[in-house]
Design brief:
With 282 residues, the chain is α/β, with parallel strands linked by helices. It has 11 helices and 8 strands. The N and C termini lie far apart (49 Å).
Length: 282
């Protein structure tokens, strides 16, 4: 079967197979940013970056080492916030970004039904760890539920500003609940409907966060940069989910085309990430 003929479920299965554990010779380091099993991040190093960073020849950098020679993209995987879908399927994307010259921090994080604050607490802790270790973060890139989370990251005023690229994001949580997307995935993650827990949705829903901003803060976020890329053939997260946002629509692209390096749409996604990533700090 050609890649173009795969269903979204088949593509996910293929990506999970291709994304198996990193090969021992790959320049990948697993770092913990907390004490729990899901509080880890894989640092995928470009093969030529280790020497210029002063790191070991296998690409592993010591804790606290400064990362300045190559900029870092933080990748947040999707899976509709379900605990059964981890970062494995995002490794092919991480490897493709490394091949394009980036260092990639592929994040794992807790996905606990009924406890969305565990997820956001993890990403906040990860952000602090990467900054403490000296990573020059160019952008956060998230897919699907990960797209929700990078939008949350960009729109949360207590976190340092950073550009984000949201790929096929669940960008309207109210509508996702109404449409029962992912078999009630959003409701299960939050543990309530918007009517039952409006204050939680106000803290987490990208659309609510954006619309609640004062004009100056909205301008600041626009200057900081949010890019949304979404395929019009997406079944898992329909295109209407990002209808209220400025976005780039990929004709014929489905849900996993935006993270599949074997997809004909991948060059467009890579170009969007490259455009959005912030210029290096002086």
């Amino acid at each position: 079967m050609a890649v173009d003929d795969e269903t979204e479920d088949e593509t996910l299965t293929r990506l999970q197979g291709e994304g198996g554990p990193p090969h021992p010779v790959e320049p990948v380091t697993l770092l913990a940013y907390g004490d729990l099993p899901d509080q880890v991040v894989e640092i995928h190093e470009p093969p030529t970056s280790a020497a210029s960073d002063g790191a070991a020849s296998d690409g592993a950098a010591p804790d606290g080492a400064a990362h300045t020679a190559v900029r870092t993209l933080v990748v947040v995987h999707g899976g509709y916030f379900r605990p059964g879908v981890d970062r494995t399927h995002a490794r092919p994307m991480a490897r493709a970004l490394v091949a394009a010259g980036w260092r990639v921090a592929l994040a794992e994080y807790r996905r606990v039904p009924g406890d969305p604050e565990a997820t956001t607490a993890d990403l906040t802790a990860l952000d602090a760890r990467l900054r403490a270790d000296g990573h020059d973060v160019a952008a956060w890139v998230g897919h699907s539920a990960g797209g929700t989370l990078v939008l949350w990251r960009a729109l949360t005023p207590t976190l340092p500003p950073v550009p984000v690229v949201a790929l096929a994001p669940v960008a309207d949580l109210d509508e996702a609940v109404d449409d029962r997307l992912g078999t009630d995935a959003v409701r299960d993650w939050i543990g309530a409907t918007p009517a039952q827990a409006p204050e939680i949705y106000a803290r987490l829903d990208p659309l609510r966060l954006r619309d609640a901003m004062p004009p100056q803060r909205t301008n600041d976020v626009a200057a900081q940069g949010i890019t949304i890329v979404h395929g019009d053939a997406d079944v898992t997260v329909p295109l209407r989910q990002s209808a209220g946002w400025e976005r780039s629509v990929l004709p014929g692209a489905d849900h996993f085309d935006v993270v599949d390096p074997r997809s004909p749409h991948w060059p467009s996604v890579l170009a969007a990430i490259t455009r959005r990533a912030a210029p290096r700090r002086p």
